[in-house]
Write a sequence for this structure.
């Protein structure tokens, strides 16, 4: 045990307690709430959109690293169903970012064998935004590397309500019985139906909340919070989060 401990201590700089049940593998699904762009810009006396532009640049670095480390799914919270409350100019800018990002990065994502995926309420997205992302989804559909899942106009309560409505309709029409409703069935109606639940959730910028993100899917995920603002987030922070994850004991209610 002592030997194990010094090995860990040498390789990681975190102070997390170590449990003998710790996981040692790389988290297969990492979800990130990329927060703090506005505050980053404010600290520098810049408009909020400058923070979003800088934050966009971080995505590429983290995707590359996640892919190299063997993470299978990377879910990024890019725009929530509540973010429409922001001033129109900011929302318009945020809706242009997927095009900008993919315009530059899509060839590199293809080269890295990344498969782009989308979850959210797609009907309300501007056409130009939706088309850009759908093009990326289409062009990467046969890739077998990291799944890059963008949560765009995503809200967990909306997602769960939509699933409930769809299930209710099936019950009403007699295609499903009440007894058929279980966790597995509900999973099939969520926007993550083909994905495993996140193993690790990262949120930047010091906020300790979920902000309507994957409420069902995060039931047994490990959480890691940092004060670092998203535009300052880098490969080292990501490695720290994973190192902390690897020291956690996931008990799922057992002992
Ligand atoms: C995260 O940064 C990006 C989005 C929510 C789209 P914010 O824009 O929320 O930045 P802060 O929280 O105001 O600093
Ligand atoms: C969550 O961040 C949404 C995204 C990162 C896309 P917010 O900045 O919108 O969350 P709150 O308002 O601080 O809870
Ligand atoms: Mg925020």
């Amino acid at each position: 045990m002592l030997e194990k401990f010094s090995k860990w201590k040498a390789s990681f700089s975190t102070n997390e307690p170590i449990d003998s049940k710790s996981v040692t593998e790389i988290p297969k699904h990492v979800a990130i709430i990329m927060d703090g762009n506005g505050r980053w810009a404010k600290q520098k006396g810049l408009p909020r959109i400058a923070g979003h532009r800088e934050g966009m640049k971080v995505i590429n670095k983290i995707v590359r690293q996640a892919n190299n480390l063997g993470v299978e799914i990377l879910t990024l919270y890019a725009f929530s169903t509540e973010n429409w409350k922001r001033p129109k100019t900011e929302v318009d800018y945020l809706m242009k970012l997927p095009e900008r990002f993919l315009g530059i990065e899509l060839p590199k994502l293809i080269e890295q064998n990344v498969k782009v995926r989308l979850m959210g309420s797609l009907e309300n997205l501007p056409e130009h935004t939706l088309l850009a992302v759908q093009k990326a989804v289409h062009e990467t559909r046969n890739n077998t590397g990291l799944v890059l899942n963008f949560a765009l106009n995503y809200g967990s309560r909306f997602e769960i309500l939509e699933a409930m409505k769809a299930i209710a309709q099936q019950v009403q029409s007699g295609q499903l019985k009440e007894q058929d409703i279980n966790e597995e069935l509900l999973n099939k109606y969520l926007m993550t139906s083909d994905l495993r639940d996140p193993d690790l959730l990262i949120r930047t910028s010091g906020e300790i909340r979920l902000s309507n993100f994957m409420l069902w899917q995060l039931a047994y995920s490990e959480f890691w919070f940092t004060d670092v603002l998203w535009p300052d987030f880098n490969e080292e922070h990501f490695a720290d989060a994973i190192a902390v994850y690897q020291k956690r004991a996931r008990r799922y209610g057992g002992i």
The chain has a mean pLDDT of 93. The chain is about 45% helix and 15% strand. Residues 35 surround magnesium ion (ligand 3) (CB under 6 Å). Residues 88-111 form the longest helix (24 residues).
